[in-house]
Design brief:
about 60 residues, alpha+beta, about 15% strand, 3 strands
């Protein structure tokens, strides 16, 4: 693993939606399609901040 787990910052779906300026449903679609990696904690998802930054840098060809 290239990054120590204590250095990883996890974001909620709502935080990711705010950062990307999309709806929470769009974030859920991206998570379920595999475009955005996420970890499930109980009934909620957490997304590594680095994954969000990577998606924003590369852009998304077709969000919806």
């Amino acid at each position: 693993m290239s990054q120590d787990l204590s250095d990883v910052r996890f974001l909620t779906v709502a935080e990711v939606a705010d950062m990307m300026r999309v709806s929470k449903m769009t974030v859920y679609r991206m998570v379920h399609s595999g475009e955005l990696p996420a970890i499930r904690f109980g009934r909620s998802f957490r997304v590594p901040e680095s994954a969000v930054v990577a998606v924003l840098r590369t852009g998304v060809a077709d969000v919806g």
